[in-house]
Hints:
About 40% of the residues lie in helices and about 20% in strands.
Amino acid sequence: MKKNLIKKLVSAVAVTTLAGSLLTGCGNAGTVSAENTPAPEASNTEAVAEVNSDAEASAEEYTGLLKEIKDRGYIIVGTEGTWSPYTFHDADDNLVGYDVEVAKYIADYLGVEIQYSETVWSSMFASLDAGQIDVVINGVSYNEERAVKYDFSIPYNYSQHAYITLADRDDLNTLEDAAGRTAANDPTSSIGKYAEDNGAILDEVGEAAQAISEVKNGRADLSFGTVVGFEDYLNQHPEDREVLKVVVTSDPEPNAYIPVVKGNEQLVELINEALQAAYDDGTLSALAIKYFGVDTTQG
């Protein structure tokens, strides 16, 4: 393991209290089995098999949530399923996306199967607290309020904050211009807090598509999110490239961590080992390029 990279990434957790995500959407509550989800590339699976042997050697020492996961034979991952390109359904209704494949890699590393519990963002942490899901893998940002209840993995993705607005809005070109404007965002998300912290007035919506609709029809001035998230939307809706513009409002920041209810240090440690292995074998970079078009795994 590259300890210097671990040190760098763990340091990012200590100093980062806000990280970007597009905005949260409304998923269909339910559980999707691992069989309906594309497996990682064969080379990734082979790499996981190699690094997983050490973890299996100490199985008798497992305790807490990690022991429960190992005993039942699968990990339950909370995710939205409506937030492209992080977690969404493809044309064949398979659950896919960057976070979905990261979760599968971690499950393979732990030597267990995976179940995805598709849950709306506003109830994600309540499900985690109630033990209905084991972890959330949904581009979760770190902040001090969450750190009171949860331990966080090292970050596994970086992003830039941005907002999307009408292309002809000459009065909206900087982060400062957003102050006093109406932003279509979810108030329970970190990006909603980012909007409010920068003086925007929230038009409370949940789904990304609804938020952009609010901007297009003039009910909201803008909607905050991430550069890669907006680029994904415009790739899927090329007709909107002349209608909308994206204003970048930050430098790259870590925006994706995996929260685990406190008291489960063993599970956090193995998740970190899995993420480090994914860094080292190139899996994370390959997945980022696959879903975002660029490598977003470094700041």
